Amino acid sequence: MSYLRSFTPAEEGTAGTVVVFPQSGAGCLRLRALAPALPSGLRLLGVQLPGREDRLQDPPASGLSEVVDHLSAELRELPSHRPPAFLGLSLGAIIAFEVARRLESEGVAPRSLLVAAARSPEYWRDFPAADPPLAELTALLPPAVRGSGLADYALATMRADLRLMADYRVPSAPLTGTPLRSVSGRHDDIVTTEQMSGWQERSTDYRGHHMIDADHHHLMDQEVLIGLLSDAAFETAPGGAVRR
């Protein structure tokens, strides 16, 4: 099954296309509610990993390379006259980064990469991705989910996503054809600005780090996502379009 979901008509891509890579444990179908509020002409695509939402019956990917293979193949089929921008949220930023690396190597680099609330790649060198402690995983869930009936489902999906990183190797070379920016929440106590500092080494065209008035979970809220999507598409200062 396809790894991409479209939430706006293809012909509305006149202002550009943004591909959203969700955080661990999450699907992308929530993006459907954002589409009516997006700037005119902006095309919105979301990445849907197996094992969640409309892919609940699909077995989890065997590793990060499998995800990168599938996504790169699908993204190569998009119109090449206006490459898409990537927005990676938390763990989704690492997937977006690796897909950008693959596409660069094939001569079809994305237009830009915006990473949000995401530890930089070198963090994953020592992360216990195979079996993180339950308390550590639970702390990553939004407060409203932790005590709900969705908690077990979300934790299982998150654990499967983190296992993708078990054999991750930090690349030695930066992106060379993809501008990269990073953004964090001022009140984020899960991913700190210091843990994101390594992103400046991950592109020869690094365009800076910005902070917005949000915590880790609020970065995934509809209003904040609309701002981040606009920022990714039009390369304004991250958070500048967020109405808070």
User: How many strands in all?
Assistant: 7
Report the end-to-end length measured between terminal Cα atoms.
37 Å
Let me know the average pLDDT.
Answer: 89
**Domain count:** 1
Say what oligomer this is: single chain
Number of helices: 6
Largest sheet: 7 strands, mixed
Q: Strand order across the biggest sheet?
A: 1-3-2-4-5-6-7
Low-confidence stretches: 240-244
Q: Which architecture does the CATH hierarchy give at level 2?
A: 3-Layer(aba) Sandwich
Order of helix and strand elements from N to C terminus: EEEHEHEHHHEEH
Rg, Cα atoms, Å: 16 Å
SS-derived structural category: alpha/beta
Fraction in helix? 25-40%
Notable traits:
244 residues; alpha/beta; Rossmann fold; 7-stranded mixed beta sheet; globular; disordered C terminus
Provide an overview of this structure.
The chain has six helices and seven strands. 26% of the residues lie in helices and 16% in strands. Strand 4 (85-89), helix 2 (91-105) and strand 5 form a beta-alpha-beta unit. With 244 residues, the chain is of the alpha/beta class. Helix 1 (64-75) crosses helix 2 (91-105). It has helices at residues 64-75, 91-105, 134-140, 143-146, 151-163, 222-234; strands at 4-6, 16-21, 42-47, 85-89, 112-116, 180-185, 206-212. The relative contact order is 0.16. The chain has one domain: Alpha/Beta hydrolase fold, catalytic domain (Rossmann fold), CATH 3.40.50.1820. Mean pLDDT is 89; it is low at 240-244. The chain is globular and about 45 Å long. The protein has a seven-stranded mixed sheet with strand order 1-3-2-4-5-6-7, sandwiched between helices.
